[in-house]
Structure formats: C-alpha cells, structure tokens
Amino acid sequence: MDFPFLEKLKIWKKKAEQEEEGPPLVWFETSATVSRRFQFEPNGQLSVTLVGDSRPLYHRIVDSFLNKFFPSGYPYSVNEGYLRYTQFRALQHTASAALSVLSTQSLLFAAGLRPTPAQATAVSWVLKDGMQHLGNIICSKLGARMDSEPKRWRILADVLYDLGTGLEVLSPLCPQFFLEMAGIGNLAKGMSIVASRATRLPIYSSFAKEGNLSDLFARGEAISTLFNVVGIGIGIQLASTVCASMQGKLVVGPLLSIIHIYSVSEEMRATPVNTLNPQRTAMIVADFLKAGSVSSPADLRYREDLLFPRRLIEDAGNVRVGRDLHKVIKPSRLLESKQVFPGEKFILNGDNRCIDMVLEQDAIGKDALRGWLVASYAVQIGKSSHELSTSTLLQAYEKMNEVFPAFIKELQCKGWHTDRFLDGSGCRFAL
C-alpha cells in the first residue's frame, strides 16, 4: 500500500478546506496614541485587542475599567443609550446602598441598641433577605404586567424601596411602633427587590445587539456590585459623622432618596425597549400615519410616559386594549364582528372617541399591529360620523392590507420584536 500517497491526499484535502473557509476577518484601527486589533470570532462576536498604547495613565485606567465592566466589543456590541443607563445605574446603587446603611442604623437605635456603622451594614443584609420571600408571594401575580411595562415597574420598585427605607429611618422617632414600622418597611423593600429582579432581564435584553445577553448581564451586575460597595462605604462614613444624629439623617436621607429616584428614572428613559406593548404600539402607529416612517426603539424611549402608560393616543385612533370581551361587545354581535375581518385575530368595536380592541388568545405582535392600523384608518375615514360602520371598517381594512407588508418589514429592520404583544394582564378571547 502507498501510505505516503494517502498522507499527501489528506494534506491536500485539509488545504482545500482551509481555502474554502477563507481567512478570518481581521483589521487594525490606529489613532495617534492607540492601536487596536479587531476580529470577528467564530460565534459572530466582535473581539477587540489592544496592540499599542501611548496614552497617559488616566486614559489607560478608564479603558481598563471599560474592558472589565462593559460588554466585549463596546460600544459596537450594545444598543444606543447603554452608557447613559450605566452612569445613572452606578449613581442609583451608590445612593441606595448608603441610604440602606443609615436606615438600618436607625432601626437598631429604635430597638434600643447603639450599633456601630459596621454592625448596621451587616444587619441590613439579614433584614432585607428575611422579608424577600413574603414580597415574592405578593408580587407573584404581577409578572405579566412587569413584562409589559418593565420601565414603569422598575421605577415603582425603587419608590417602594425608598418608602420602606424612609419608615426605617423614622423608626427612632416612634420607638413604641418599632415592630410595625420595621415590618412594613421591610415588606416594601422585599416587594421592591422582587420587582427590580423581575424587570432586569427585559431591560438588559433591550441593549443586547449581537446575542451577547449573558455578557451584558454579567458586566451589568458587576457594576452594580462595585457601586453598592462604594455606597456602603459612603453610608458608613455618613453614619459616623453627619448622620450620627437624627437631625442629620432627616437632612441626608431625603437627598439620597431624590438622587436614587432621579437616577433610576434617567436609566429607564435611556433604555430602548424593543418589545411591543399598547403604549409603544400606539406611538409607532401614530408616527407612521403622520410621517409615513417607522420609529426605532431609540426614537421612542424619551417619549414614553412611564407614570401613565395606558393613556390613549389620539393620533393612533384612541385604541384601548385589554378590556373584558363582554364589556366591549354584546354576545349577540360577537360572531358578526368576527366575520367582518375573517381570519384575523382581533375584534374592534367603538366609535371615533375610543375604539376597543380585543385579541385572540394566541395573537402576536403582528396581529395587534394589523388591528391597530385598521382602527386608526377607520377613525380617519369616518371622522364625520360618531359610529364606525361596517363599510368604514372594510375600507380601513383594505388600506391596512396595502401598507402592511412594507410597514412590518421596516418595523423589523428597526429592531422591533413582532413575535409577541405584551398587553400585561389584559383580557383575550378564544372561539
């Protein structure tokens, strides 16, 4: 047997396979002081390696911090707004941790103890973890609403946390009600922790750009931990000096709370959530009807109403989603209304002032968008009449079918997820 020939055949085959695969995509970017090597890994992620660096020490420290606490490939691997979100997240955790130390010190004073700042820091973890389980039970039925409005619930979670902390700080003023104030305060904080954890994943998902959700999550939690430690250090220092007296706590506590709530509000405003819910769908439809173009998640993030997300938007047809079916339409007209749009997974009923849309149980984002466009066009066509006639709805339906293919394509290109419609705990039907 000619074994050398077989070996040569294997080598030729290996070379041919390497030629077919082609060289890895690698390039270098060089500025006046820094040279970096960029390469796409086999899994599609962008890898960045520092080749040469003649910058001052300060700039190198900042770059080292970004490499350790920001996702790989930053800023190319995340969506717009991540830096601002992270800046205010750091400030939020710092203020929250400092406030937590002060509140725990107050609780122990109210109980008749005289703790050191270090003791207050240790006990705060025990109190917080002890009430988390009860808060979990109370919040267990709110998960769907948190999926629909993660930014709103994230803010509410921090408001709850500060209310609980406020009760703890005030407990020395009412030592006879120590157990009541401590119990209610820690219950609020426990609910807050559950709500903030439940909304964490949707918020991180909105920044993921290259399937790097795990990397984003890990780096984000690292930043949270780092600034929690910083906040605890600040809290210990305040508890030893300015806030050693009750008067000091009554001044510093509200200031820390204001910083905390402001920071989390700015975090949420910077977050470009890309899932469809009633408010974002209404804003997308309104912009499309006015300008003929689709807004991206980054375009809408600062326009979202985080306090009253269910308000009706006139330019989008004043569509209301999620009411009980029996309140929207009479049972005798149900089949008739369903036959107006055969094959569709929505029912519309109402007038020019407000149109109710009820979705089928398995309806997705595309179905909600189709129904919303029909309702908006129907309001435009039937402005002169108060009632929406069948002929008006059919005209609107034809108009929707004309624009929908281009509309949905542009929507997906802008990064919107159309495979789900998150209407919270809204009612749906099945026939």
Brief sketch in words of this structure:
The protein is of the alpha/beta class and 431 residues long. It has 15 helices and nine strands. The strands form three sheets. Strands 5, 6, 7 and 9 form a four-stranded mixed sheet that branches. A three-stranded antiparallel sheet has the order 1-2-3, with no helix packed on it. It has a two-stranded parallel ribbon with strand order 4-8.
Can you tell me about this structure?
- The chain is an alpha/beta fold.
- It has three domains: about 45 residues, no CATH class; about 190 residues, Growth Hormone, Chain: A, CATH 1.20.1250; about 160 residues, no CATH class.
- It contains 15 helices and nine strands.
- The strands form three sheets. Strands 5, 6, 7 and 9 form a four-stranded mixed sheet that branches. A three-stranded antiparallel sheet has the order 1-2-3, with no helix packed on it.
- A hairpin with a 5-residue loop joins strand 2 and strand 3.
- Helix 7 runs antiparallel to helix 8.
- The longest helix has 30 residues.
- The termini are far apart.
- The relative contact order is 0.10.
- The mean pLDDT is about 80.
Features:
single chain; 431 residues; alpha/beta; Growth Hormone, Chain: A; 3 domains; four-stranded mixed sheet; 15 helices; 9 strands; 10% strand; UVB_sens_C
